[in-house]
User: What shape does this take?
Amino acid sequence: MQSDGITPDTKDWTWVIERPCPECGFDAASVDATRIGDATRATLPRWASVLARADVDARPAPGVWSPLEYAAHVRDVFRVFDGRLASMLESDDPLFANWDQDAAAVEGDYLHQDPVAVAAELAASGRAIADRFDTVTPAVLGRPGRRSNGSVFTVETIGRYFLHDVMHHLYDVGA
Assistant: This one.
């Protein structure tokens, strides 16, 4: 357990690009990878509603992130994956830098961030990655990139993996 009382998520979620998630029900494999920008933009009003909740910083149970923490995480997911997608589109088979999402949450003190600022940053970061996904054409869907643990993604599969993360966290916060 980390110092904030949250147990780090150590699961390998890459399987979600092949089959529906039994927790949230999202089927990433059914997503048209050239429409991920639109799908990402469609989540932004839902996140804005989450961040407008009066109890946005309340943890629903010990060891479970608050809606504010999930939103701050998604803001950072937008930023990290935007960088990864850019490197895949601009370089041949890039190796992604490690990103410890749990350490980022602790170091960024997600629980105590300003929900208004997180809402603005999440929206801006979401639009930025959506715009980048809008540049994806069928011709580049197979371009590869790798995580440091050896997981290989293509532009298509990283997009589906990314979108599952965003949708799953909306499920986590009941949105």
In short: The radius of gyration is 16 Å. The CA atoms of residues 118 and 128 lie 15 Å apart. The mean pLDDT is 91. The first strand starts at residue 144 and ends at 146.
